[in-house]
Amino acid sequence: MSASSTLPTVSGLDLARYMGRWYEIASMPSRFQPSDTTNTRATYELQSDGNVSVLNETFKSDGTLASISGKAWKNDPKSDAAEFTVQFWVPPFLPLIPVRGDYWVMDIAEDYSYAMVGQPKREYLWVLSREEELGEETYKALLDKASDAGYDVSKLKRTKHLPDVGKKDTSGAHRDGFWWYFKGLFGGNSGS
Question: One biological process GO term for this chain (predicted)?
């Protein structure tokens, strides 16, 4: 399949079931996503207006939490396709510029235990799981689907999940949004 072909997406995604915490298993990170971190995760919460609040978090080697908040919405509320737009404000410490991207759910487990998210240009890809680990057989099956959809899966980077990192309540933790933005803007991604 060529990169210009339509990206296959899930039909009939149950958005309420999709909400909650997801752990990044592997990614082709965006330029705003730092690469030298561990325990990367996303938390989604359905809002009363039908939009989704997004909180992306990752941890630096010293344990400092870096995060960025945003929102997502369905591209066409009447469509059955799981095609969303996500928006973050940058820099996160002084939100001035909205940055938008595609968030298309390409695959979802029947029990919503894992998902694969991409975008039509095939520049970014995320493998997500409700747990910090995903079985190798499942992971390889997702890579095969991504490859069949036109992705160069050799660009995927596995995400490390270290024991005890991010296990404490982080609601009051230092959120270094400047670091997230700065590292992404000035070359924090060795894989992109």
Answer: lipid metabolic process
Q: What is the value of pTM for the model shown?
A: 0.84
> Which CATH number does the domain housing residue 69 bear?
2.40.128.20
Which residue has better confidence, 36 or 190? Answer: 36
Residue 100 lies inside a defined structural domain of this protein: yes
How many angstroms separate the CA atoms of 5 and 121, rounded?
Answer: 9
- Asked if the structure places residue 58 within a domain, the reply is yes
Angle, CA of 14, 17 and 20, to the nearest 5°: 135
Other residues' Cβ atoms within 10 Å of the Cβ of residue 95: 14
* Cα–Cα distances in angstroms (integers) from residue 149 to residues 39, 97, 129, 144, 175, in the given order: 27, 31, 20, 9, 36
Cis before residue 120, ω within 30 degrees of 0?
no
| 62-101 confidence digits (pLDDT tens) | 778 888 899 999 999 999 999 999 999 877 777 788 889 9
Count CB-CB contacts under 10 A for residue 126.
Answer: 25
In a domain, 175, yes or no: no
SS3 content of the chain, % helix, strand, coil (to 5): 15, 35, 50
Residue 95 and residue 177 in contact, taking contact as beta carbons nearer than 8 Å: no
Domain range for residue 23?
A: 15-158
| Residue 31, φ and ψ in degrees, nearest 5 | -70, -15
Residue 52: CA count within 13 A, CB half-sphere: 26
Would 171 be classed as within a structural domain?
A: no
